[in-house]
Design brief:
Layout lengths: L6 H21 L3 H10 L4 H5 L16 H5 L3 H11 L3 H5 L12 H7 L2 H34 L12 E2 L8 E2 L3 H19 L3 H9 L6 H10 L3 H10 L3 H16 L13 H8 L7 H8 L7 H10 L4 H11 L4 H11 L6 H24 L10 H12 L5 H5 L8 H10 L3 H11 L3 H16 L4 H4 L1 H11 L5 H14 L17 H12 L33 H10 L6 H7 L10 H40 L23 E3 L6 E3 H21 L1
Antiparallel strand pairs: 1-2, 3-4
Amino acid sequence: MLPSEDSSLRAAKEQSIHIRYAHYLFDNGSYEEAMEHFLASQVDITYVLSLYPSIVLPKTSMVPEPEKLIDISSDALYLSRGSSGLSDDMESSPPSQLSEFDEHTELESKKMSHNTLMALIKFLQKKRYSIIEKATSEGTEEVVLDAAGVNFGPYDSSRFKKTNKGRDNVAINSVAREMASILDTALLQALLLTGQSSATLELVKGLNYCDLKICEEILQKRNHYTALLELYKCNSMHPEALKLLHQLVEESRSNQPQAELNPKFKPELIIEYLKPLCGTDPMLVLEFSMLVLESCPMQTIELFLSGNIPADLVNSYLKQHAPSMQGRYLELMLAMNENGISGNLQNEMVQIYLSEVLDWHANLSSQQKWDERTYSPTRKKLLSALESIPGYNPEALLKCLPADALYEERAILLGKMNQHELALSLYVHKLHVSELAVSYCDRVYESVAHQSSVKSSGNIYLTLLQIYLNPRKTINNFEKRITNLVSSKNISTPRVNSGSAVKTKGNRASKKIAAIEGAEEMRISPSSTDSGRSDGDGDEFGEEGTSIIMLDEVLDLLSKRWDRINGAQALKLLPRETKIQNLLPFLGPLLRKSSEAYRNLSVIKSLRESENLQVKDELYNQRRTAVKITSDVTCSLCHKKIGTSVFAVFPNGKTLVHFVCFRDSQSMKAVAKGSPLRKR
């Protein structure tokens, strides 16, 4: 019905009509239809949001000026205001001041109803695609200019830069992103007010420009922690997100009443959050993994392994911030990846165990309750580690062991130093457990058998026999011999860095490990003992005592390990008064085996002799090969018939030549070889 006129004037009138009619529909409850007319008028979203005073908007350089949008004529402006029922003060005042007018209380309550918010959500969602696209392209343009070397200060709405081609100035401002921030912030609040939690979560998970301060406050107030975590995550606020997640996990553990929208939070969620951060911020991962290391040790270690965080870095961080979990970490690290732990870490783990065992021993000794056959869980771990882990330094650990206890640990360390006689003497004379001595011999035998002859690896059993058969008063000499042994190796043994001390139980544990590492300075080190002497030298044991020969253990060892012991040498060690009847369990299978071996070797000898004869016969047959000369056979050199002349046969058996031709050819070869000499 408008008359034909200028297109811009007609468009302005159409926009004014849409806005006025939208206000009329909004006041009469047709909210969705009103939003359609607001959308058709292409009015700015800030103008529509001014109708919702409870929607908190971020501070921006853009001030909504609805007058500019509908200022076609004074009558049009009056009609626009009159049809909407809003005063001039309401249009020009900020949303926060609308609540001051008592006459609009009922109208505000109506506008903030569920239907009005649903209409606003649809309006914002229809406007969102184009606004977000503009904001994204604006950010891309700035990135391109930065890459091209165009620098600018803090962004505001009035900055200008020149293009590389020297054209007119191009304004690069933040209008699009400010508009996107207003839209997303308002949309998030509208979704929360209408109870659309899932839609809120989807909004913050994707690309969004929500104002962090406003949305953080609203989500915290309404206990929408899942959406708040995603908001932190999309803004790269990982420390804040992890702190919140840890708080939620602790609250879930304490069974405190939670909001209906708050799910059950588990420690595994922290680990899942940390996984993508291992490659970019390993220190942040280490800091917050300490919160779940104790409750989820296996998952945390897997996090370190999957994230390729160096084990030395993890260990040093644990030493400073969670020393009680350092041993646990090294245990799991070794169990999950045996080759992934270095020798230094292995040595440190053994020192942690030893420090705890020494504290435990000192505690029991002070109460006079120490028993050598008592095994705590940590002592079992220590014994297992000493036997299975190859990366520690046995000399350094041996120096800190008490002289009157922990004999089994001492025996293992001596075994690592190849001091087998001392180790076996501890098992036999200190621990009085022959089974451990036999097991020790078995381990040594099996470890050496594949490297050298069985004869040399069987010497360990002969050493044990000597200990059984020569009991002496060695108890008083053990400490001196071991001290001398360690002192003699000080020159060739590198010291352990005191920096590897582990804080397992505060300062006390640290001092204990420091004492372990620097014990060589606290020992008297006599240097009169020659480390090259055999452990079996009898004069080192002192005088013989009245101990009875352990003949029963000798016979038991011979009967069980007869196949690993040199029988002749063992019989030489036995006392003359030993009865043959007692040696039947040893001599019976030994003689049977020897007889069987003799028979087998005899058969092998006969077979070898037969094979030798066959080879000789074949050699003779090859040497008497017959050559048939006919009238047609010719010499391969002169090509004349051989006839009855003397001939020669080449090794291939087929080439025949006259003997004279062969001799001449050999002479010519000799002359050819000697010609350089004659020329010279």
